[in-house]
Amino acid sequence: RDFALILASLSDLGYIVEWRVINAAEYGMPQRRRRTYILAYQVNTAIAHSIKDSEKWILHEGTIATAFPVYIKENALATTFKICGTLDEISSDFNTDRMKIGFENAGIIINRQVTTIATIPHYEGGHLLLGQLLLPEDKVPETFFISKEDLPKWEYLKGGKQEIRKSADGYEYKYSEGSMAFPDALDKPSRTIITGEGGSGPSRFKHVVQTESGRYRRLTPIELERLNMFPDQHTEGVSDSRRAFLMGNALVTGIVEKIGIVLLHSVDALRNL
User: Fold this and answer.
1) What is the 3-state secondary structure (H, E, C) of 118-162?
2) Of 19, 54, 77, 220, which residue is least crowded by CB atoms under 10 Å?
3) What is the pLDDT of residues 243-257, one digit of tens each?
4) pTM for this prediction
């Protein structure tokens, strides 16, 4: 519903809007971070006038398609529909019998007419891995290492469990969850950084790596910056916990950079026609 409202609002304001759901790791970047990227073109601009075929734009000709090539997902077909009604009606009727709307992971909207299709990444380059971005062990402050006393707490939180728990009002319930990788694999892109990555307390979701000496440790702010492809010390000047929070809220900048470069080249090319 919120996505439909965003698209309809931008369309009403005179923009053509394309979007793509991109997992940075699927294009060689060092973090498995899946986010929706949206580009809006004012309808009177040269780039908007260059959009002749919505499906071709999504798959081949568009800014995002040029930066991040895709295939059509097997057996997928493009679908088109119009987002009708006022913004209040969209909010109240979305995905009811009055307004059935289905967005795939790539698409474009022009004058409220949506074209959308399921795609998969087309990438044949190299990959940055978590282990490639770590600081040497002797450069990591001691505060980031996990003590032998705390290690069992981390192992418990990371492990799978099925246990009876009791709510604040005394109600007993069965709690279960699967295990997580512990330590995190160094030969893969990292898991998604979250805002709770900072702080020394044991956590199910914080990254933990094992060093060459066999010790376990958390990731430093510099390493978190690298996983989002920021320059080292980009967040310097606030606490380590705040730096981790900022990286949990950030995008992988390599995605934005590639889209920006393609957009710049497209604008320059159209200006020179």
Assistant:
1) CEEECCCCCCCCHHHHCCCHHHCCHHHECCCCCHHHHHHHHCCEE
2) 77
3) 999 999 999 999 999
4) 0.91
